[in-house]
Structures are given as structure tokens and as C-alpha cells.
Design goal:
This protein is 41% helix and 26% strand. It is of the alpha/beta class and 160 residues long. The longest helix is centred in the middle third of the chain and has 22 residues.
Length: 160
């Protein structure tokens, strides 16, 4: 019976997380190959705000990619630090509005179809009402492999 209770953890890997508070965390998240954004908030308004955060992270990732390697360099007048501040302000707004904490971390996952590995960013919005100790969580569990085709399909469905 005890084995059945913990079966959902079988094969998962720990991901170190911390409340999303710094530019360094944002840089690590936006350098990742894949974003996983999850929330246990139940209202439609909260879901919309979490989607807005995901869009902010997506935009930040795109802006950071404009370094001249694949995309043209961004204009000198563009202030990345202001964008980071806006993202962190959005995180704080969600946390205050919904009595939540936004946990973030990254890990390396293997491809389910090849020998490649990918950097995966995990952003989890957790309710402090459901779990008053949510801000103290230091690890989440994630799948050790990722199907990039499915991840891209999920992303495109989310975008539409």
C-alpha cells in the first residue's frame, strides 16, 4: 500500500528550486531549451496571470537570443534590466494577488528520442493557502527525459 502511494515518484529526478527573485535566476531560466510552467492556482484569472508570466519569460528568452548569434543584435537603447524588473514585478504581483510563491529552477533532461540532453526550466506557482510552507520548498520532481516534439506541440497549442 505504501509503495502505491509513492509510485508517482518512481523514475523522477529532483530539481532544485527557489522563489524567483533575481536577475541571475531569470538569465538561467531564459537560457534553457524548454520551459515547463505549472500552477496549482484554481481561478481562471490566476491562470491568465500565469499565462502572462509565461509570455514574459518567453519574451525575455527571445530578447536574450538577440545577441547576434542567430538573431540580429538588439538595439543599444533596449534595457534588458528593465525587462527583468518587469518580469520580477509580475512574479511579485501574482504572489501577492493569489497568496502564492513562484518557484524556479533548471535541470538537464535527456531526449526521449536521441542521445541529446536539453536544459529545462521549471517554473511552478504554488498556493500558500494550500501549503503554508510552499515558500520553503527546495526541490520539485520532474521527468528525466523530454520529448521535444511533444514539448514543441504543447508550446504551439498554448500560443494559439
Amino acid at each position: 500500500m505504501l509503495e502505491e502511494s509513492f509510485a508517482w515518484m518512481d523514475g523522477k529526478v529532483p530539481v532544485r528550486v527557489a522563489p524567483l527573485r533575481s536577475e541571475a535566476q531569470l538569465r538561467a531560466l531564459t537560457e534553457s531549451d524548454v520551459f515547463i510552467v505549472v500552477s496549482d492556482l484554481e481561478s481562471e484569472e490566476a491562470a491568465n496571470d500565469v499565462d502572462g508570466l509565461r509570455e514574459y519569460l518567453d519574451l525575455t528568452s527571445f530578447v536574450r537570443a538577440e545577441d547576434g548569434t542567430l538573431l540580429p543584435k538588439r538595439e543599444r537603447s533596449f534595457r534588458v534590466r528593465q525587462l527583468y524588473k518587469d518580469v520580477l514585478d509580475a512574479v511579485l504581483s501574482i504572489e501577492r494577488s493569489y497568496k502564492a510563491v513562484c518557484l524556479a529552477g533548471t535541470y538537464e533532461a535527456k531526449s526521449s528520442t536521441s542521445s541529446e540532453t536539453f536544459s529545462v526550466a521549471v517554473v511552478a506557482v504554488r498556493s500558500r493557502e494550500r501549503n503554508p510552507a510552499a515558500g520553503k520548498i527546495t526541490q520539485l520532481l520532474a521527468d528525466p527525459t523530454i520529448d521535444m516534439r511533444a514539448a514543441m506541440q504543447n508550446y504551439l497549442e498554448w500560443m494559439s
